[in-house]
Amino acid sequence: VSRRAFFVIPPLSTPAQFFINAPFGRFTPSTNSVFLLDGIHSWILMELAAPIALIHALAYTPLATSTADIAPLTSAPLLFTALFLMHYANRALLSPLRTPSRSKAHVSVTLSGVFFNIVNGTLIGTYLRSPTASAFFATPVAARPAFWVGITLWAAGFVGNVFHDEILLNIRRNARAKGKARAKSPSPLATSSSSSLHKKQQREYYSIPHGYLYTYISYPNYFCEWIEWFGFALAAAALPDVSSLSALVNSVQPPWIFFLAEVCLMIGRAYKGHQWYLRTFPDYPKDRRVVIPFVF
């Protein structure tokens, strides 16, 4: 039931993502509120939920009804566990701890993210210990071309995600350095017009990124993450049966569900962020697409 719900709910919520500004990052409310949490701490809490849930599911298989439902941890599921944990080691710890600053996030965003990651980590971990995965891995994964294609896509997506996030981190580092220099030597404009200074600092903090896929799209970090999880699903699970809706719902496995959920829940956010860039920066490249090069 939870697997099917996790498959159905994200697509149903996709249209709303194009109209709602989730209150975190550049869309954090400007007013102070007890419901706004520290950006770095809330991000770490939210993202750590996924690997913790995965490890718990691998160890205790909470959705299994009998010992027959529990498959042994062979080399294949251990490999995919390592890939999952590698992604979240960067996402939950390395990246936020290297971030100079991060905008506050509303508690609703943090709680929603924790819930999503607990469900996803549990489903992925349970799948890797399931008879379905055991049967899929019965054929040596190295003998399947889809495995090598998937692993290559995962690696390319992971590296691309890190590279493009690093560009954003450098923008924040530069903004922080400028802020420190300004604090040591305040200009007459800074002392006389705090509101205009605040707007200028915001533009610096969110300046136009350049390089790599930023030449073509506003959110290459999202695009690379989709490639990463598409590759993971291609290597770790059988292709779903798309002959009918009922066949699709019954056959789609958690790695594919996770990929679909990522796209459905992030594409609207990317669109809203792209529109924000266009409004905020008059010189923003008009030929940049949102998140898929040359397409959208």
Task: Please render the helix and strand layout as text.
Blueprint: H1 2-17, E1 36-37, H2 39-60, H3 75-97, E2 105-106, H4 107-128, H5 131-136, H6 145-184, H7 188-192, H8 194-205, H9 220-236, H10 245-251, H11 254-280
Antiparallel strand pairs: 1-2
Q: How is this structure best described in words?
A:
This protein is mostly helical and 296 residues long. Helix content is 67%, strand content 1%. The chain has eleven helices and two strands, in the order αβααβαααααααα. It has helices spanning 2-17, 39-60, 75-97, 107-128, 131-136, 145-184, 188-192, 194-205, 220-236, 245-251, 254-280; strands spanning 36-37, 105-106. Helix 2 packs antiparallel against helix 3 (75-97). InterPro entries: 3-oxo-5_a-steroid_4-DH_C, SRD5A/TECR. Keywords: Membrane, Transmembrane, Transmembrane helix. The chain crosses the membrane at residues 34-58, 70-89, 109-129, 141-163. This is 3-oxo-5-alpha-steroid 4-dehydrogenase-domain-containing protein.
In a nutshell, what does this entry contain?
The chain is mostly helical.
Number of contiguous helices = 11
Characterize the main sheet: 2 strands, antiparallel
Poorly predicted parts:
189-201
Binned, the helix content reads 55-70%
Distance between the termini: 33 Å
DSSP strand content: under 5%
Give the number of DSSP strands: 2
* Average pLDDT, all residues: 88
